[in-house]
Write a structure and sequence with these properties.
It is a single chain. The chain folds into two domains: about 5-60, Vcp-like ATPase, Chain A, domain 2, CATH 3.10.330; about 65-260, Vaccinia Virus protein VP39 (Rossmann fold, 3-Layer(aba) Sandwich). It has seven helices and 13 strands. It has helices spanning about 35-40, 65-70, 80-90, 105-115, 130-140, 175-185, 195-205, and strands at about 5-10, 15-20, 25-30, 35, 50, 55-60, 95-100, 120-125, 145-150, 165-170, 185-195, 210-220, 245-250. Helix 6 links the parallel strand 10 and strand 11.
């Protein structure tokens, strides 16, 4: 049963969406009419409210809804990449994951949910404004108890060892790749986000010097479809390139000069 202080997603029949926190005496103004918070209190997720000739549906906030509603000052990791990263890093309950940098906290939220209830995400950010914003956003989404935020530049080193997975999303990743490798357990996995091709090339050259194997580079594309069953086809627009993702696995000694095996 919903109560004041709960967050809900309001979904209108035309596809419009609003995320609100229920507050006494407040209302949400929409083009279908006003939705008074007091009319939502006491209802359940999945219930609806009548607005003139239309309906407003009361839904729980999913992680994708949360991501696109975040206050942000940086480019976020898109859901199409986020899900793939979580699977490729094999992040699960109980894992210790290190993230650098925190950005707006979108990937932090996804990692925290994946390692909960027993795991931990340690998120490094060198800029105080991003550090504070990421903390606020993760607290809004939940699982903040599984996250430790550190205001620190990882060029000074990191405090963790025996890390299960490492997510590196910084403007210049190459200087930090040795830190990533040194922090991981044997068999630990890493992902390096590279928006441009020249960054990927620099990362690959540096990885040759490190004890890593199974290096792979991926780029993901998805297409949304139109809903008209008589004219079913892809939407006219799609999200194109967002980033390249470089994955690999740490080994205890040796490593593979992967370019010679292709």
């Amino acid at each position: 049963m919903l109560k004041y202080g709960d967050k809900v997603l309001i979904y209108l029949e035309d596809g419009s969406e609003y995320i609100i926190t229920l507050e006494e005496g407040k209302f949400l103004g929409t083009h279908f009419g006003n939705i008074f918070h007091e009319d939502i209190v006491g209802k359940e997720y999945g219930d609806s409210i009548s607005l003139r000739k239309h309906s407003a549906y009361i839904l729980n906030i999913g992680i994708v809804d949360h991501i696109f509603s975040l206050k942000r000052k940086t480019q976020i990791v898109y859901p199409k990449d986020m899900g793939f990263i979580l699977l490729m890093l094999d992040v699960k309950n109980g894992d210790l994951v290190v993230e650098c940098g925190s950005g707006s906290g979108s990937m932090t939220s996804a990692l925290a949910r994946a390692v909960a209830p027993d795991g931990r995400v340690v998120s490094y950010e060198r800029r105080e404004e991003f550090h504070k914003l990421a903390k606020e956003n993760v607290e809004c989404f939940g699982h903040s108890e599984n996250v430790v935020f550190k205001l620190k530049d990882i060029s000074e080193g990191i405090d963790e060892s025996n890390v299960n997975a490492f997510f590196l999303d910084v403007p210049e990743p190459v200087p930090h790749l040795k830190t990533v490798s040194n922090s991981l357990i044997g068999g630990g996995r890493f992902c390096v986000v590279c928006p441009t091709a020249n960054q990927v090339q620099d990362v690959l050259r540096e990885l040759r010097r490190l004890p890593v194997i199974k290096v792979e580079i991926w780029e993901t594309f998805i297409r949304k479809m139109k809903l008209n069953p008589e004219r079913f086809r892809p939407e006219d627009r799609m999200v194109g390139h967002t980033t390249y993702m470089v994955f690999g696995i740490k080994v205890n000694e040796g490593g593979v000069r992967y370019e010679e095996n292709r």
